[in-house]
Design a protein that fits this description.
CATH class of the largest domain: Mainly Alpha
CATH topology of the largest domain: Tetracycline Repressor, domain 2
Number of helices: 10
Structural class: mainly alpha
Strand content: under 5%
Largest sheet: none
Number of strands: 0
Order of helices and strands: HHHHHHHHHH
CATH superfamily of the largest domain: Tetracycline Repressor, domain 2
Radius of gyration: 22 Å
Distance between the termini: 82 Å
């Protein structure tokens, strides 16, 4: 009688940097999770729905992330935090002149959305909503690095007389967010309302900068 074949056990992943195929799989799973978050919201998204979106089993998703809470932590750490740091660096590089600073912010937001189309929808759903999963992240992480930095720099410009005296730097930041993320999030709506398929993202960017030029005064190179 032949001896039974021994089953090959899967060795646990060794600590350290994951192999390339594991890293790619993890990225694909994270992309699937983000797609579900943007469409259905974080609260309504289950690990099962993410697994279905990715075409894998829930067990595989659990293998890489362990739980939905840890997956959300990974999303914030790997997809939100680096983008916020990049936007902060662009603001610091722009200096303290209001036109350059505002232009850096507007171009930075458009650049983020160009690379990550899910950003505006997720912002509306998970930051603006009363119980949005990313609201605390906004207050604790994004705001100090971007919004408060921008407001502080604009306040300095106001003190030096290079920003109009009747502009509140804090409200100017709110206006900048309203002129960038909201039009991008509402793009499917206003395109239908005005039959505006001829307006591409570069035209929207130029329009926003021109509108801000009128409010700030002076000229802004497009």
């Amino acid at each position: 009688m032949a001896a039974p074949k021994s089953r090959k056990r899967r060795e646990p992943r060794r600590p350290g940097r994951p192999r390339a195929d594991e890293a790619n799989q993890r990225e694909r799973l994270l992309d699937a999770a983000i797609a579900c978050f943007a469409t259905d919201g974080v609260a309504a998204t289950s690990q099962r729905s993410i697994a279905i979106k990715a075409g894998v089993t829930p067990a595989l998703l659990n293998y890489y992330f362990g739980s939905k809470a840890k997956l959300l932590d990974a999303f914030i750490a790997e997809r939100i935090t680096p983008v916020v740091a990049e936007l902060r660096e662009s603001l610091l590089a722009a200096g303290a002149e209001p036109h350059a600073l505002v232009g850096a912010f507007v171009r930075g937001i458009h650049g983020v959305v160009e690379r990550y189309p899910w950003w505006p929808a997720l912002w509306v759903r998970e930051v603006l909503a009363e119980r949005g999963a990313l609201r605390d992240t906004l207050v604790q992480q994004i705001s100090p690095q971007v919004a408060q930095l921008l407001a502080k720099t604009l306040a300095g410009a106001k003190q030096r007389g290079t920003l109009a005296a009747d502009l509140d730097p804090r409200l100017l930041v709110v206006s900048l967010i309203g002129l960038t993320l909201f039009p991008l999030a509402a793009e499917p709506i206003w395109r239908r309302m005005f039959t505006a398929d001829d307006v591409d993202r570069s035209a929207l960017l130029r329009h926003t900068l021109a509108l801000l030029d009128q409010g700030l005064g002076g000229s802004h190179a497009n």
